[in-house]
Write a structure and sequence with these properties.
Mean pLDDT: 93
Strand content: 15-25%
Radius of gyration: 15 Å
Largest sheet: 5 strands, mixed
Strand order of the largest sheet: 3-2-1-4-5
Distance between the termini: 13 Å
Order of helices and strands: EEEHEHEHHH
Helix content: 40-55%
Number of helices: 5
Structural class: alpha/beta
Low-confidence stretches: none
């Protein structure tokens, strides 16, 4: 089987911080390889009203899609929040993100935090530090962002590769 390369955009949605990562995944019959192309975050100004923040997420995501041309997108599902006040703004951000991805005709896959942690660490209730450590091992990179949202985005992209490609 010849090696197959897939460029995956992983997204951890948020209104204040949206983490993103573009990972190129290469799979052959005997090996898999992950190459982190870019990662970072879209951070919006808390003093702005929600529509302005959502537009900023949309515009920044469009720029990333045009620059890195992913083949597929993997987005974290929202299924549980400790703080009820944050679920609506995060849901709005997720809606803008999925709409923007759809505008670019990207296939979109959704994963719960439990699925992501299970796929990355082997334990669905793993701590953030465990996810970060496994992402560093998978990428052979100990210089990842310290921002949880960015690390989560990388984990989401890796999760997609391992579950679907």
């Amino acid at each position: 089987m010849p090696a197959v390369k897939t460029r995956i955009l992983g997204i951890d949605p948020g209104i204040a911080i949206t983490g993103y990562a573009v990972v190129e995944y290469t799979k052959s019959s005997y090996d898999e390889d992950f190459d982190l192309i870019t990662s970072g975050s879209i951070q919006t100004d808390k003093s702005l009203k929600s529509p302005c923040r959502l537009l900023e997420i949309h515009n920044d995501l469009e720029f990333l899609l045009e620059k890195y041309t992913p083949d597929v997108a993997a987005v974290e599902k929202i299924f549980y929040f400790k703080n009820a006040k944050t679920i609506m703004p995060v849901s709005e951000a997720r809606g803008v993100i999925t709409m923007t991805l759809r505008k670019f005709n990207l296939p979109i896959f959704d994963y719960t935090p439990l699925e992501i942690k299970q796929t990355i660490t082997g334990f669905g209730r793993a701590e953030k530090c465990d996810v970060k450590q496994m992402v560093e091992i998978i990428l052979s990179d100990c210089n990842l962002s310290k921002l949880d949202d960015t690390i989560d985005a990388v984990a989401i992209a890796i999760c997609h590769a391992r579950m679907n490609i």
